[in-house]
Amino acid sequence: xxxxxxxxxxxxxxxxxxxxIAGLFIQKDYMDEYPNHIHAWAEQDHYALxxxxxNNGFDLFHPETMIYNKQFxxxxxxxxxxxxxxxxxxxxxxxxxxLMRIFGTTxxxxxxxxxxxxxFVGLLFLYRIALRLTDDWLKSILVTTIALTSPVYAxxxxxxxxxxxxxxxxxxxxxxxxxxxxxxTKRHFNLGMVFLTLAMLMRTTFAIELIAILCxxxxxxxxxxxxxxxxxxxxxxxxxxxxxxxLWNRHLRNLYGTIFLNQLLPPEDWQDAKELIAKAYDNWGFxxxxxxxxxxxxxxxxxxxxxxxxxxxxxEAVVSSTRKPLSLWWLPLIEVFGCLLFSVAMMQQMxxxxxxxxxxxxxxxxxxxxxxxxxxxxxxxxNGMACSFVGIVCTIMVFNATKMQTERRDDNDLSHISYxxxxxxxxxxxxxxIPRDAKIVCLYGFPQNxxxxxxxxxxxxxMWEKNRLPDAIENWEFDYIVIEDYQxxxxxxxRKALLTRLKKIGNNGKxxxxxxxxxxxxxxxxxxxxxx
Length: 532
Hints:
Layout: H1 9-27, H2 40-55, H3 91-103, H4 108-134, H5 137-149, H6 151-156, H7 163-181, H8 186-202, H9 207-222, H10 232-256, H11 270-288, H12 291-314, H13 330-345, H14 356-359, H15 362-375, H16 384-407, H17 414-421, H18 425-431, E1 440-443, H19 450-455, E2 459-462, H20 468-473, E3 480-484, H21 485-490, H22 492-499, E4 502-507, E5 511-516
Parallel strand pairs: 1-2, 1-3
Antiparallel strand pairs: 3-5, 4-5
């Protein structure tokens, strides 16, 4: 097999400029935005991990957030003596914390910039993979732009989740593997395993990609196109590293609990599965990719299938003693099968988490698009009409992605309302003389780490009316209770029993700082909002 190249200086420069300019254009208004819209819960948890590393002296193997009571295993009921939590290997958050220390600020822009740079690197390697598959820089630009302008990818491109850097590591690992596949040395296979292992440690779902590559390589070994002894050391090291951190993480979870989901959530039955799939489609169908992008996919697929059928009817039978190497089509198809299995195992979460696409189907879908483009006529980059058409398509996708970033931000979202109410809460608490090491109970603030990040203090979260939580509060050792006035007024009947026991220390019109009395201090709970 003649190796293809992924080195085209003009195309590489064009891809680099497109990625940076379009990426900054899409995200220009949000580079210092506090996470407070879609999936603010998850983003604030990872933001809190970075702050936790600053607070704990950069202890990588004891990640912390801002809360003592963890969601798992018993839904916030039990408080630990520490804010340590089990988490996937938090190297992403650790590096963000290092940058915050270097820049001397914990502002969101530092974390966002770090994630965006990783996104840019991953997209550049995606371009090189597409170029390797298509031998056409124009087609490769199209694949890269599709990735960049996927609404969900564009939203998290400068976010706080490890999905973007893990995806980038997975892309780099695939690029090294393809170099090995094209006849390069086992060093490239080993490097691929390094990056794939890091991706898997950061987001366990990237084990699907690593296993898919190993399955693909096993097929090649079975066909005697490859050998296994030279790969065994790298595979064993990868498995041992992953298992070592898995066991350490389980130790942390058993000892301290965790704020991160760590169990499978399949559908209850076939009817439940259909409803969950329908809900996921309704919620995220046109957030995974734009409507316009689906039309582009359909057009590419129809043309490629048409060309393939035409070519098959024109070919004459040729007898050859040389067997063709295993088609690369098997690689993304195996990965898609793995992603389908994962989707079944976590189907109850699919309607709630659009970023699962980035962790699963996103990369194999892009590879399939590149392979379909490879069927199209060659050297489109030398055709002026083709260049103009692709340029227009890419421009439309960039502007659509920019528009959708605004549409994905809802000022009526509960996390946004909470963010507004807790804005400058750290300064307000300072003015009341409340020390930074005071333990705060945050009643019904949403999401779990958000209010504590804004108060710059640690404590206990109680987000919902769960009977066990008010009872559990009695056993927690805390200094103050902070409530969001809006939340209590809008759900007064559910919360008036607590209001009779709260002694107000201070109020800024949005939040009240209180202590909890052993007995009711007032007969009418409404008095809390009118009198100190």
